[in-house]
Specification:
mainly alpha
Length: 121
């Protein structure tokens, strides 16, 4: 991840709540970091969908598998930025939750595809 709190010509100023100082955020780096999180979530959704399909999970067990895989990915992403999450993102919430719903659609696509390939054909 790239430090988004650095000064550059494409930065925007934000006033943090309860603080009198103005902090500069580089929008290009922030967008790049969020794009990397989305890519990680997409790959994790594809791999977990393939695993759930091959394992033959159906119904709520498949969705529970996605939730566990998504939580695991959130832990990995938070571990990669360690305690300096605010240097790379505007909030920790964006690392934990961004892309979870979109990843679910990707998960269901690969889950059903690989379930059909492994168990129906």
């Amino acid at each position: 991840f790239t430090d988004s709190r650095t000064a550059s010509t494409s930065s925007a100023d934000f006033r943090m709540e309860g603080d009198d100082r103005i902090e500069s955020v580089n929008g290009v780096f922030l967008r790049s970091n969020l794009s990397r999180v989305a890519y990680c979530r997409t790959v994790a959704a594809i791999l977990s969908g393939i695993c759930a399909g091959i394992l033959g999970l159906t119904g709520w067990a498949g969705f529970a598998f996605y939730i566990v895989a998504s939580l695991f990915m959130s832990v990995l992403l938070m571990a990669s930025v360690r305690s300096s999450v605010l240097n790379y993102f505007l909030s920790a919430k964006s690392v934990v939750w961004d892309g979870v719903l979109g990843g679910m659609f990707t998960f269901v696509l690969f889950w059903t595809l690989f379930y059909a390939l492994a168990h129906l054909f």
